[in-house]
Design a protein that fits this description.
Blueprint: E1 3-10, H1 17-21, E2 26-30, H2 38-50, E3 54-58, H3 76-97, E4 101-104, H4 108-116, H5 118-131, E5 136-140, H6 144-151, E6 155-161, H7 185-198, E7 200-202, E8 208-210, E9 215-218, H8 225-237, E10 242-243
Parallel strand pairs: 1-2, 1-9, 1-10, 2-3, 3-4, 4-5, 5-6, 6-9
Antiparallel strand pairs: 7-8
Helix pairs in contact: 2-3, 3-5, 4-5, 5-6, 7-8
Length: 247
Amino acid sequence: MTAIDLNCDMGEGCGNDAELMMLISSANIACGFHAGDEETMRATVKLAADNGVAVGAHPSYPDRQNFGRNEMELPLSEIKAVVTEQVLKLQSICDEFGVPLTHVKPHGALYNRSARDTSVASAIAEAVHEINPEIILFGLAGSYSITEAERLGLRTTSEVFADRTYQPDGSLTPRSQSNALIADERTAVAQVLQMVLNGTVTAVNGTAVPVRADTICIHGDGEHAVEFARAMNDALRSRDISIKPIE
């Protein structure tokens, strides 16, 4: 592997977007349903364009109160509708700046539900496909998010996480558990290198789980997001792996 994408969730009001944007290759921009508004969306799209970073939509459940991290039981038609509304909102802003909308990555609880629920994964994929079948869908590596999108003919990007721990089935450890987040920089870097170079991740029970790593996520709201992003850059580039958007 000579290149990999490094993505980050942006426009969420964390105050570190400008620093992070210089260290990543793809930005997933909040579309107002869990964070952000049209003003922050415009500012983040411009910031991404100024730094040569690919722009993607980061749609969520309509749940600003809980930052989109609580699961909601919505009809599939409504899930499709809220994803469509958010992606089109960011698409219109991208059009204002003459910037392509390259990808969609669901946020939080919607992302996790899509990973394990074929119906939700299909509803999201259908929404994206109807907007533009050329848009790439980011999803958890090895999950229904990927297989359902590919079934519809969408291009997909298998995502892995620098700052989250994994279960033996390849799913992310729920945030409700105390060991869900990785706070130590060395541990995060070691996990990324294992996933990128070896194609495996060590689950919380110590087993090595096969994983495909096309893009690495760093959460912009993480306490050490900038430090993690800088360390990932240094570790990858020192091994002659460049950081660039998915093509």
